[in-house]
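Interim report to the steering committee. The following record documents the input for Glutathione S-transferase (204 residues).
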Amino acid sequence: MKLYGMLDSPYVRRVAISLRMLDIAFEQHSVSVFSAFDQFHAVNPVVKAPTLVLDDGATLMDSTLILDYLESIVSPGRRLLAAEPVERFAALQRIGLALAACEKTVQIVYEHNLRPSEKQHQPWLDRVHAQLAAAYRALEVALVARPPLIDSERTDQASLTAAVAWRFTAEKLPGIVDPVAHPALQAWSVEAEALPAFLASPYP
């Protein structure tokens, strides 16, 4: 398998870390959708990261769809997402919050970095900031209620995605989300980043 995308993308990074925790061999190809558009286009004409290329050349994109596929090809004992409905629902809730935080972080970054300042719409930015804050408030509560599970240097998908999201926002929007107000997320981020799979797929 080959994984295309940059590790500063939370979507690429969650897949890379998951591949390692699932013990699936893969090659990481750090190709940017911006600076290497044509190169990425040759792999996937949609130019969407992450893109996973299987051994037979078939491609799959979108981190959630990729992870769903990967869960289907490993033994039940290796899976990172619970099968039992109640536990699975709780995990999907936390994953949804973490991915929402990633999405809102990306929107803020793009608004500041890609749109000319005179064309930025402050009411829109205020709304996205509020959505980002709400996602992390809810994720903090959820993390306190259901602390991350670590088993033999692995964790579950919800906790993995929460850690990746928190690090992404901290790197891209320093000072926007206060770690003091989110002690569980901050503590988990530090712990997660020390896990072998995280160290092997570091935020650049």
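Helices lie at 10-21, 37-43, 63-72, 85-113, 122-145, 157-172, 183-193, 196-200. The committee is asked to note this result when reviewing the revised timeline.
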